[in-house]
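Worked example

This section walks through a single chain of length 218. The input is the sequence exactly as stored; nothing has been trimmed or padded.
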Amino acid sequence: MAFPRVVLPLLLLMPMSGLAAQQAEPTRLVVQEGGREIGREEFTLQQSRARGASGTTLTASARYPANQPATQLGAVLEWGPEWSIAKFQLEVESAEGTTVILAAGSGARLIVRTVAAGSESGRELPGGPDVVLLDDGVYSLYAAVADLATSAGRRLTAIFPRTGKRASFTAQRESAGGGGGVRTNLSGDISGTLVTDAAGRLRRLELRDRNITVTRQE
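Given that input, the structure is written out below as tokens.
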């Protein structure tokens, strides 16, 4: 298929290692399934974007398991004003090789491109202000969910670019107590609770449907 040019600038993104080296001290997360640790994640959340554009940039890396990992993931996601998706890059390294997934928003469309050894594919998906990009191995991406949530509950659609999975859910936010944190209750295809701090960084995530708990390493 002929791929829209909106995605081409994503190929100019700096390597993951170079971006991570420019970030401040990362926040560290421990990922557990059924009470057993299965991996670790580190991320930074920066209130700016490449080339000085307004918005927010999340840079993350994850390892499964933490020691001698069989799978390693690196993600960079740039949000524009009001958490619109500007650029997304996910790099997955495993025994099968390296796969790179690129995505960009263009109005009501989301353009996704997947590049692996010897293959390349692209697809166009519905986008818009109620769409978030998530991944089953990079949990810091849930920061956008907390920011888009409302006290009355907001209906959102999650797209998982690595697998192509879609999920519809409601995100309802409430105060998490002192310190300006926010607790977000998730119901629907994604169920659980999400707690972020005053800076919007993930502090705790519980996904009841997957028996996953993600906690900040203090």
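What to look for: The chain has one domain: 5-216.
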